[in-house]
Amino acid sequence: MARPDLNLLAALDVLLAEGSVARAGRRLRLSPSAMSRTLARLRETTGDPLLVRAGRGLVPSPRAIELRERIGPLVQEAEAMLRPAAALDLKRLERTFTIRTSEGFVENFGAALLARIARDAPGVRLRFVPKPDRDSGPLRDGSVDLETGVVGKTTSPEVRAQALFRDRFVGVVRKGHPLARGEVTLERYTAARHVRVARPGNDTTHIDEALAAQGTAREIVTTVAGYAAALALARASDLVASVPERHTGNLRAGLHSFALPLAMPEITVSLLWHPRMDGDAGHRWVRGCVREVCDIAGRAW
Asked: Could you list the residue range(s) of the whole structural domain that residue 74 is in?
C-alpha cells in the first residue's frame, strides 16, 4: 500500500475550516482549479466525499466532521515540530545530564563544573557515573549524555569528540619514599615495587609496553582498577603508582610526584557525545560548560 501524501493534511485542515474550495484556495495561495484537484485527491485518499454540495455551498460529511476535531491539533503539532527550537531559557531549564568519567575527573573538575552549571541553570542536575570500559554503547542508547576519555580503537566511529586537555603520566610515591629524593632514573624506577592500574582483562599498560620497548620491566606487586585505589596504596606503603598528572591532581595531594624516566607521548582527554545530540540546545550548553571548566583549570595548571 502506497504511503499517503502527508502534505494533504494541511490542505484538508484548511478545507474543513473554510468549508469552501475558493476560500481554501485563497488561504493556500492556490487557484480554484488546483484546489479542486487537491480536494479530489483527498477524496480518493480517504475514500470519502468529505465536502458535499448543498445548494450553493458545501457541507461536511460525517467523516469530515470526525476528522475536523482531530486534524487541527495534529497539523499545529507538526508545524511546531518543524519550527526552529525555541531559545534556551537556562533559568527555567530543569534537566538531569548523565556524564560517564574515569576516576579523577570528578575529584578535579566536578566542583567547578557544578558551580558553573548552577550559576546559569539552577534547575540542571549532573549525574556522574563510573567508566569501567570504553564501550560507546551507553552514548548510543542514550543512557549516558556525555563521556570523558581518550579516543581509541574501541571508540565508535560515529561518536563526536572534542579535546579537553592534554595529560601525561607521572610516578607517585609517599613522602619519605626513596624515590622522593634525587633523580629518578630508569634503573631506580624499575627496581621499585609498583601498583598497576588496569581494567579487568588487560595484562599490560602503555607504561609496560614502553618499558618492554627498552628491554626492561617493572615489578608489579598488585593491580587495581582505578587511580584512587592506586594512590591510596602508594600513600600507605612503598609502592609506586603511575597515573595521569592532571587527571589526578587533587587525588595526589600530600604525595610526591616525579616525571617518568620514559619516552611516552602525551595523551589527549576528550569530551565524547553521540551526534544525535548535536542540535540539542541544553546538551550543547552543558558541553560548553565542561570545556570552559577544563580550559580554566588548564590555564591555572
From this structure: 7-82
